[in-house]
Fold this protein.
Amino acid sequence: MYSFNNDYSEIAHSKILELLAKYQFEQNVGYGLDYHCEKAKELIKNHFSVDVDIHFLVGGTSANKIVIDHILRPYEAVISVDSGHINVHETGAIEATGHKIITTKGINGKITPPEITSIVNEHHNEHMVMPRLVYISNSTEVGTIYTKDELAQIKKICEENNLYLFLDGARLGSALTCDDNNLTLDDIAKLTDVFYIGGTKNGALIGEAVVITNSSLKHNFRYTIKQNGGLLAKGFIVGMQFEALFTDNLYFDLARHANLCAKCLVTGLKALNIEFAFPPQTNQLFITLDNNLIKQLQEKYLFEVWTCHNDKSTIRLVTSWTTNLKKCEEFISDLQKLILKK
Amino acid sequence: MYSFNNDYSEIAHSKILELLAKYQFEQNVGYGLDYHCEKAKELIKNHFSVDVDIHFLVGGTSANKIVIDHILRPYEAVISVDSGHINVHETGAIEATGHKIITTKGINGKITPPEITSIVNEHHNEHMVMPRLVYISNSTEVGTIYTKDELAQIKKICEENNLYLFLDGARLGSALTCDDNNLTLDDIAKLTDVFYIGGTKNGALIGEAVVITNSSLKHNFRYTIKQNGGLLAKGFIVGMQFEALFTDNLYFDLARHANLCAKCLVTGLKALNIEFAFPPQTNQLFITLDNNLIKQLQEKYLFEVWTCHNDKSTIRLVTSWTTNLKKCEEFISDLQKLILKK
Amino acid sequence: MYSFNNDYSEIAHSKILELLAKYQFEQNVGYGLDYHCEKAKELIKNHFSVDVDIHFLVGGTSANKIVIDHILRPYEAVISVDSGHINVHETGAIEATGHKIITTKGINGKITPPEITSIVNEHHNEHMVMPRLVYISNSTEVGTIYTKDELAQIKKICEENNLYLFLDGARLGSALTCDDNNLTLDDIAKLTDVFYIGGTKNGALIGEAVVITNSSLKHNFRYTIKQNGGLLAKGFIVGMQFEALFTDNLYFDLARHANLCAKCLVTGLKALNIEFAFPPQTNQLFITLDNNLIKQLQEKYLFEVWTCHNDKSTIRLVTSWTTNLKKCEEFISDLQKLILKK
Amino acid sequence: MYSFNNDYSEIAHSKILELLAKYQFEQNVGYGLDYHCEKAKELIKNHFSVDVDIHFLVGGTSANKIVIDHILRPYEAVISVDSGHINVHETGAIEATGHKIITTKGINGKITPPEITSIVNEHHNEHMVMPRLVYISNSTEVGTIYTKDELAQIKKICEENNLYLFLDGARLGSALTCDDNNLTLDDIAKLTDVFYIGGTKNGALIGEAVVITNSSLKHNFRYTIKQNGGLLAKGFIVGMQFEALFTDNLYFDLARHANLCAKCLVTGLKALNIEFAFPPQTNQLFITLDNNLIKQLQEKYLFEVWTCHNDKSTIRLVTSWTTNLKKCEEFISDLQKLILKK
C-alpha cells in the first residue's frame, strides 16, 4: 500500500532529526525563549522587508484558534469561505472561543472581494455580529492558490472596511513554489496582517511559524498562546526545526518536491482525460472517478474519498516532501490499466 | 552555567530519538489512529487491572484544559489548592473554557478531605457554581506527594459528594519512584477518574498520556481534544515516544534518576542546615537562602527564584532524567564554600 | 405616524398593569420562587398532558442562549435555517457560549427533514462538530408556521439521530391562533424537548415562559439561567404577567387579535395584487413594493425594510395584540390611492 | 410575617407604575432607542460634570457580566475581594465569559490599595493572567461604603498600573445617602471608568443604569449587551423607570428611607448590645445572635442567615425603599423581649 492520503504521514526530514540529535543534551530555557527559536526567527525574517513578530506554534487548528482568539473582541466575527478549514474541520474550535464564522460560497476555495463587501453591508448594526477579520488559506483546502493581484484586491477591500486579513499557511510552501505562483513570502507579509508558515505539512515533526505583521496585533500574543495551551515547554524543539527548514532553502525545496510529484500525477491524469474537481495547482489534487475504479485503486493506494455523487466520487490525492516520484508514475500506470480493462 | 531550572531543558532521551530515526519514512495514518499509538497504549495498559482509555496530548496546560473542559457542564467548577498549576500558571486556561476554580489553602501543596467538604457545603444553591471536580497534582507543584491512604480518602470524599477526581501527573514519574511513595500506576487508575502520565518532564520531546478510568468520561473525548487544538496531525510521534518510555521500564528509570540526583542534593543541603520550604520528596526542592548567597550561586547555576521575603528568598532546584550527578555534588560543594566564606 | 414596525412597541395589556398595581406592596421571595410564579406555572401546565418544568425568563435572545447553553456539550452544535433568529439577529449569542450553528437553507423559513438528515450525514467524525440540537421557530422569522404533521416528521428525524428539538416560541401565540394552525400547546409539548411561550411580543412587559418537556434537560436549569444573568431578582413580576396572560385565555385572545389585524391587511393587499415574499399566515407580513411607493408610505407609517432589490424592496408589516384594526384599513386605503396615483 | 430578607421583595414605587399606565398605548421604537430612554439619560446626566454614556440593563448579574465581558481581552483578569458579588453569588457568570477573578481578602468588604499592588506584582508574565480591572461594590456586599478618599486612592493605584476601575452600584442609592457618605454621583463618575446605578434594589421593577465614563470603553457597548441577551425589546420600560426615579430626586429619597429604617434598627440593636459583624452604614445590617434567638425571630420575621458559627449565627437584615418604620421598631421590641425572656 502506498499512501497519497496526506502530507503528514512521515516523521520528518533528516536535517531536522540530525539537529535534534546534535543538540540532544544542550540545556535550553523553556517556552520558546531559547536561542534556537531566536535563530530560526532571524532566518525567517531575512525573507521580509517589513518588521514582523514570529511565534512558533504546535499545529494548524491550534494556530488558527490562537490567532483568531487574539484578534477578535467577543462580538466580532471572522469571514471565511464555506470550505475554509476553520469552518469545516476544526470541530468548532473558533466558535469555542466565542466567535461566529460568517461563511460565503467562494470560487474554487477562494473568497472574492464582492463577497466580502456584501457580508459587510449585511452586518450593519448591533443585532448582528461585527465582521472584523477575513480568513483565507493559501494554498486553499482544495489545492488552489491566490495570485498576487487577488491577494492585493482582498487586502484593499479589508482595509476599506476595517477588516484584518489572516492567511492560513498550513500549506504555504506548496503554494509559494508551484508554477502558477507569483507571490513571495515578503508579498504575503505586506498583504496580510498575520499569517503562518506551515511546518507540519512540509517536513517538520510539528510546528507552524505565526508571522504577525500588523503592529497592533503583536501585543501580548504570548498570553493568548499560553491560555490556549499552545506554549510548548520545550519550545526549542520547534525552533530547531525551523532553523533546519530555513537553512539553505530546505523549506522551499521540500515544497517544490511535493509539487513536482503532483505535476507528474496531473500530466498523467490529464492524458487519461480524468476530470478535476478543482484546478490542479499545488500538492492536493481532486479528481472524479467511477466508484468501481476507486475501489480497485484502494487495493494498492491510500487516499481520501472527498465527496460522493451517485456512482462517481471525488477523491483527493496528496503528494508531499517525501513522496516517491516513481510511485506517482506507477499510480498513473495502474489507473490507465484499470480504465482500459473496463 | 549548569541549569537546575526545570526538568524540560534537554531535547529527549536517546531511545526516543532512535525510534524517530528508525521509523522516519514509514507512512502512518494521522491523528493518533496509527499502530504506534496503539502499541504504546497496550504497553501502558499492561500496568492497569482496570479498563482505561488512553489519549496522547501535547503538553500539560493543554491536557489540564482539555480534561476539565470535557468533564464540566458550564455551571460546574473545579476545586484546587491555591498553588495548583491550573490556578496559578496557566494564564486562566481553565476559566477561558468558562469554569471557575474554587481554591483552598491546602497543606504542603496537597488538598485535604475537610477542605473539600467545606467547599461542597458552602456551595449549596444555584446562585453559586456547583463543585463537580477535584484537581490534584502528584507530585505537587511544591514537590510533595500523596500517599495511597491520602488519595483513597480524597477519592472517598469525592464519591460521597458526586465529585470527579482528576490527577495532574505532569511529574507522575518522579512521584511514583521516590522513596516515600507507596502508590502504583494501577492504584492511581483505581483511585481517580482521570489522570495523566507526563512525558515532557520525563525524557520525551513532547507528550502526556491521558488515562480515563471512569467510563462516563470516555465518550467523545477526541472531539474535545480536536476542538482545543490538541489533536496532532502526526500523532504517531507522541505514540512512538510512549512506546519507547514504556518499553523496559524506561519511564520509571528516568524518573528514578531524577530522584537520585535530588536525593544527593537533599543530603548535602541537610548537612548544611539549609531550610526547606516544603518537605523534599521528589525532583523539585524548595530551599530558603540569603539573597546574597543566591546572587553568588546564580553566577554558576540557573534556577528559579520562587518567592522573596526581605533579605531571603526561596529558590527551586529541579533535577531531571538527564541531570549530571556530579553537578549536584558540585553545587553542594560550591554552596558550602560560599557559606563558609560568609 | 402609525407603527407596523413590530409587536413590542406598546407597554403591556391592562390586565397585567392591574395585577402589578394590585400586588404592589406584597412582600415576595426573590428569584422566581414566589407563589405568583407557582400559580402562573399551574395555569400554563393546565394546557399539558405531559409533565413539564417551566421557567420564566426575560427575553427571546436570552431564552435562546440559555436553553442552548444548557443542552449542549462544548463540541456539540445546533442546526438552524439560515433565517433563524439565533443565526442572524442575536449578535453571535450562541457562538459566544461556544457553539457552532450549522445552517441550511430551509423553505419559507422552515427546516425540512432531508436537510437535517443531510447535515447529520456530513458530520461523521471528531474533526467536525457533532449536531445535537435542532432549532426551529413557530411562527418563523418570516411569519410562516409548522403544521402538526411537519413538526411530527421533524421530531421523528431528531429522535432517529439523537438530536434534541427546541422550538423558539417568541411568537407562539400568533402561530397557535392563526387560521392555518392545527397544533395545540400540548402537541408542541409532546413534539419538542423544550420550547418557550413568548410574552414580550404578545402583551407582556417582558417575559418568556420556557417549557422543558424532556426530563433529561430539566436538571440544574436554574444554574444555567443564573450564570447567564437571566435570573431576575423580582421574578414575581414575570410570574404575575403569565398569571394574567393565562387567565381566561387572555394569551390566545391577544394573539388572535394580532392575526385578525394581519388578515385584514392580507385581504386588502391581495385585492391590490401585492406580491408576498412569504406565505402570509400570522402577524408578520412580507410584501414587495416599488421603492417610491415605500417612501410615500413611510410618511405616515413605520415599518421595517427587510431586503432591497434594485428599485423594489420587501417590507415587513407587523400587527400586534394592540394594533388598531381601523389603522389596517387605512393603510390599505392609503396604499390603494398611492398605486392609483402612479 | 414581615420580611427583612432583601430590598427587592416588593413590585415598584407608585410613580413608576403611574408612568407605565400613563404611556400604556404609546408606540415606541424598540431596544432602548426611544425618547423615554433618552429623557432618562438626560436626567441622570444632569448629575455629572463629565461626558458619559448611559445604557439601561435588566439586572445586577447581567450588568456585571456585560461590563466585564466588554472590557477584558481573553487573557485579562478582574480583581475583587473574596466577598465580591461576582466572586460568590453569580454562579461563575464572569468565568463563563472566560475571565479569571483574582481574589483578595479585603477589609470589611472593601479592597485596599496595597492588595491591588501586591496582585499586580505577582502577575508579571504570560504564564499568569494579566490583571486589568478592579471590581468594587458601593455599598459593599456587607453594607459598608467607600469614602471619597478611599475611592481616590484606589483610582490612583489603578491608573498607575493600567487597571480599569468598575464600581457595582446595585445599592448605590443607599451608599450615597447614608450618614457616613461624602461621595456624589459626579465624584463616582470622575473616580471610576464605569459604574452602575442600581434600580432593582431601590424601587424599580427591574433595571440598572450603566454609566461609562472612560471614552475608550464606550465603543460598541450595545453589541456586548445584545450578545449577552441584555438588550430588552421593550427598552423603554426601563427608560421610563429611571425617568421616574430621577425626577424630583425620587431615587435618593427612596434610598434615604431605606437608610432611615436601617438606622432605627441600628440604634435599637446597639442599645441591646448586639454584635455587628460589619460596621452598620447602609441598609444591610449583619448581626450575630444565638441560634435559639434566631429561631424565635424567624417565627415572625424573614431574613437571611449569613454564616453559622457553632451556637451563634450571623444574620442579615435588609431595609428598603418601602420598609415600614414601625416594623423596625417592632423588631427591636420583639428582640428585646426575647433577650429578657432568656
Notes: Chain A touches chain B through 53 residues (CB under 8 Å). The CA atoms of residues 90 and 162 of chain A lie 26 Å apart.
